[in-house]
Amino acid sequence: MMAGRTGGSGSGVELDVAVFLRNLADARHLSPHTVVAYRRDLAEFTGYLSRRLQRPEWRWDEVDRGLLRGFLGELNRRGLARRTIARKISAVRSFLRFLHREEVIPANPARTVHTPKLDKRLPGWLTRAEMERLFEAAELRSAEGGFRGVRDHAIIELFYATGMRLSELQGLDTRSVDLIAEQARVLGKGRKERILPIGRSAATALRRYELRRQELAGHGPRDRGALFLSEQGRRLSTRQLQNIVKRFLAAAADDAGLSTHSLRHTFATHLLDAGADLLAVKELLGHASLSTTRIYTHTSRERLKRVYEQAHPRA
To answer: Is residue 305 flagged as an active site residue?
Structure first.
């Protein structure tokens, strides 16, 4: 409990928000990027409250549905995207729920404030033909024998073989991958660990990369435990991984909207197309809820509908 704090302006508000953000990081194990987004959204919310209440001192229990609707209205007047507004309101709702749980406020006024209804967006994915072109490009680079080409090929293979998130792949250490058992140990959201099969193709590419990676050992790489290294021996950043994948996507697919995350979507879509069980795909992806995984069934249905309309004589 937060010692019965009732909130206030200035340092009091900042302290309440800081306690909440620390809880997100330490207790809920959210990523640093998510915590930064929460901090930014809550700073915007408290700034709005200070302007509306127009007093040097105010308390959290003064925040009611009217103020929350006013904040929602301000976000709409600024012309923000629905998804952005929904994220900001979600951050506020989580914060007020936390204050209620800690008995700082008697009730959560955000419970009845609804976020904008979002249009369902099907995730970007690559067809099998596009994936073949992508692997052809990666294998061609790898065949040249350079460190980068061999490494980048292994990255592409591992992304598609496991469907892991960008942050999960970036955080892999050499001890995370067992090339004999052909599996990888991944630390996902909420620090939940899962074991993923990596398949023969990815294992072969990783063995080839490991031989080239060992050559860096003689030069004393700075991040010895990291799986994917730069030529300077440092762990690749998420931005560097994104750039590597985007180069291959540009060569293999026409859709400029594809991203690194598209390989994760492609992994799930191709598994479901082949008849994989939805629950199994959920576990492989590390989703907390089955509803999150179900979006990939919509992707498959839309594609099947198009195939039907194109192929059936009386469609």
So the answer is: no
Is the separation of the CB atoms in 95 and 17 below 8 Å?
yes
Rounded-to-integer distance, Cα 23 and Cα 19, Å: 6
What are the tens digits of pLDDT across the range 225-239? 899 999 888 999 999
The 10s digit of each residue's pLDDT in 166-183 is 999 999 999 999 999 999
Amino acid 286 reads G
Q: In the annotation, is 287 catalytic?
A: yes
Beta-bridged to residue 178, according to DSSP, are 183
Instruction: Say whether 100 is catalytic.
Output: no
296 in catalytic set: yes
- The rounded average pLDDT for each run of 10 residues, N- to C-terminus, in the chain (315 residues) is 44 85 86 88 92 85 91 90 87 92 89 69 78 92 92 96 94 95 89 91 96 76 85 92 91 73 91 88 89 75 68 70
Residue 271 CA: distances (Å) to CA of 9, 129, 168, 230: 52, 15, 20, 32
Look at the pTM and tell me if it is higher than 0.85.
no
Among 208, 287, 294, 303, the active-site one is 287
Picking from 94, 100, 75, 70, the residue whose alpha carbon sits closest to that of residue 85 is: 75
Tell me whether residue 264 is one of the annotated catalytic residues. Answer: yes
Catalytic residue among 165, 212, 265, 270: 165
Residue 23 DSSP SS3: helix
User: Residue 257 carries which side chain, given as an amino acid letter?
Assistant: G
| 80: exposed, middle or buried (Cβ count in 10 Å: 0-12, 13-18, 19+) | middle
Rounded to 5 degrees, φ, ψ at 186 are -115, 140
- Domains assigned to the chain: 11-112 (1.10.150.130), 128-311 (1.10.443.10)
Please give the helix or strand (H or E) that residue 194 lies within, else none: strand 193-197
List, as one string, the DSSP characters of 112-164. GPPPPPPPP-PPP---HHHHHHHHHHHHHHHHT--HHHHHHHHHHHHHHHH--
Q: Does the active-site annotation cover 87?
A: no
Determine the length of the chain.
Answer: 315
